[in-house]
Specification:
single chain, 6-stranded antiparallel β-sheet, GMP Synthetase, Chain A, domain 3, 34% strand, 6-stranded antiparallel barrel, 4 domains, 7 helices, alpha+beta
Amino acid sequence: MHTLHAAVRRTLALALLSAAAAGGSALAAQPGMPSLDPGMVAALERDLGMTQDQYRVTVDVERQVPVAEATARQLYGESYAGTWIEHDADGHPRLVVGTAVQGRQRLPAVEGADVRQVRYSLYELEQAVHALDQSATSRIMRRLDGVQSWGVDLPNNRVVVTLSPGAGRTEAVMDFLARSDVDTGALHFEVSEQIPSTLINIYGGIQYNGCSIGFPVTRGSTKGFVTAGHCGSAGTTVRIGGTTVGSFQSSTFPGSDAAWATVRQQDTLFGRVWQYSGSSTTPVVGSAEAAVGSAVCRSGYRTGWRCGTITRTNVSVNYAQGTVNGLRESNACAGQGDSGGSWISSAGHAQGVTSGGALGSDGTNCGIAQNQRRSWYQRLTPMLSTYGVTLVTN
């Protein structure tokens, strides 16, 4: 972790430092300097050890980048090897430009920047990445197990290829490199035990597999969500957006229609229900059960965000797979694919997860008159106690 922290500081991404104030009170800025949101200052100090004064100095250096880069490109032409910011041991930033001009001749100066002579031009490094890209997407290359990433490392004038442990001598990796025909002198290999993966935000109502998430929950330090039992049996893999994130831990159907599944530690749980209207969400404040006649809304990927009232309680439904007992009925519409999704009261209390409905020929009951519409949900409170999980609230 210390090595990574130092590396991040040395090659601080410029984009992180171009923040303007966004809501709330911003820190007072010197004339000509941008204001910075206090939350951003706190994050920079937490993650990079950067003080407010260091930030301001770094921004001043950053402002010199466009002119320095344009000057260096003009001076060095095809030998231009990139522009970047480095930080010394005390956190002081300096601007650096690279050039692949060879020989002992005196290098043209770039105002405000250190000039560093390197072996490869930026064009050569980017061409190496392009060749690796082409090799990775070649029809012949079916799989690329063990190769995690590759990209340009400007300060060290190389292309870094990151591999999984033990992958360096595999046929797939050797073939990948051979087909690229890249100058191996430009490559640097690193090994990482951490496998690349996407990060997923878990909200009530979003799609997984062919169903919808009910509500994010935790059991100790384990993250997960509750959903309908008919969506999967224990051990069923959970995929969101094509990414495998976990599996069903327990599931019951018929009898009841309840299940809970895990997600990964890097995924973020939100005590909110997705409304399928832009990025709007509804906060979950608790799990007090609403009375019959109360307004209730539900969320699922097939029909989105729909509302109605609770019409019946303790309903038994005789599905083709067997009878499910203890459901609640509503006239909010639903459809195939909404199974497992969230039901929430107008007061923001989580009610349950979609079990089923009396559906029309289109796989939904949204076209059926509301006074004839029947949708059912599995109550949440028994699920929380049965599985020993805690509802994530806002």
